[in-house]
Structure formats: C-alpha cells, structure tokens
C-alpha cells in the first residue's frame, strides 16, 4: 500500500480492476478546502489515458512491474515469439500487446513487461529508435528536395512509413518507434 505522497511518474498502481501507470501528477493545495492530487493515468492493458483526482493521503495499491530483456525470434499464428535473454525460455506475446509490431526484425532486443505477482505479460517496450533497411521506394528526383515532401517506403520488416524524397532503396534509416516515423539516415 502507498499514499498520494508516494506518487511519481512511472509508478504502477491497481485502480478500477486494471493496471495503470502515472503519466503526470500535480499536488494541489487550494486556499479553501482539502488538498488533492490531479493525475493522468495510462492503462497498461488498453493504452487509454484517463484523468483522475485523488484526495491527499488517499491509499492506493501499487503493482510491481518487471522489465525483462527478450529477443524476437519469429511470428506465427499464435503470436510473436520471444526468448528470454538470461534464461533462454520462450514466451508468446499477442499482437495487441506490442506497440509497433511492424518494426520488429529477427534477433531484435526488446523489453517484455510482466506483472510480477501474476507472472502475466502486460506489454512490450521497443527501444526508442530502430535501424532498418529500405527494400522498396520510388527513386528521388535530383533537385526535388527543396520542400518538406515525403514518399512511402517499404522496410525490410514489411512495414511502410513516410520518408524524405532523398532516401533510396538500400539506405539504412533510423526510425522513432514511439511515433512510427523517419528520424535520420544512418551513415555506413
């Protein structure tokens, strides 16, 4: 058990029969009336962000979430198969628990989030940036880079993103996994 005094960004708590993580909180002490804590909570099961107000001193149940490094092996009808990097045990993760499954390539390291008490998988975290190779895109035209225009490009994983016009087939690019967007070209 914890109280609102223990709130910090990233703290996981059990609330309304679901697991939430605190995205943002603010302690408010109005001139009149009791103090309270205004929070933004993100559901770890649905990804939905809700706002909630707790009275100061309110008791909450915290949840212990463990991040364990896993390596992506392959995908089949059951889901995405990962291997624990320390114990070599394999786990299957359903597609809806992965933020950007199109950016996963064989052998890639990610963190799988487990609810420690129940040993249940509740999500995954990809690294902030991944480097992938362009397998197909229309060729760029010389001198056509003055504007901030973009074109579709297919990555080695089969995912499609928008890239600047100067990117060509075979280029290796860095992609932001949080926004699923082009970040920069990787120098070889």
TrEMBL record:
**GO cellular-component terms in the record?**
cytosol
Q: Print the keywords alphabetically.
A: Cytoplasm, Elongation factor, Protein biosynthesis
Q: Which CDD domains match?
A: S1_EF-P_repeat_1, S1_EF-P_repeat_2
Q: Where does the Translation elongation factor P/YeiP central domain lie?
A: 67-122
Q: Which InterPro entries match?
A: Elong-fact-P_C, NA-bd_OB-fold, Rib_uL2_dom2, Transl_elong_fac_P/YeiP, Transl_elong_KOW-like, Transl_elong_P/YeiP_cen, Transl_elong_P/YeiP_CS, Transl_elongation_fac_P
Q: Which SMART domains is this protein grouped with?
A: EFP, Elong-fact-P_C
The family database entries (PROSITE patterns) matched by this protein are listed as: EFP
Q: Where is the Elongation factor P C-terminal domain?
A: 130-185
Write down the superkingdom of origin: Bacteria
An example Gene Ontology molecular-function term: translation elongation factor activity
Briefly state the protein's biological role: Involved in peptide bond synthesis. Stimulates efficient translation and peptide-bond synthesis on native or reconstituted 70S ribosomes in vitro. Probably functions indirectly by altering the affinity of the ribosome for aminoacyl-tRNA, thus increasing their reactivity as acceptors for peptidyl transferase.
What family does the Swiss-Prot or TrEMBL record give for this protein? Answer: Belongs to the elongation factor P family.
The protein in question is named Elongation factor P
Say which species the protein is native to: Fulvivirga sediminis
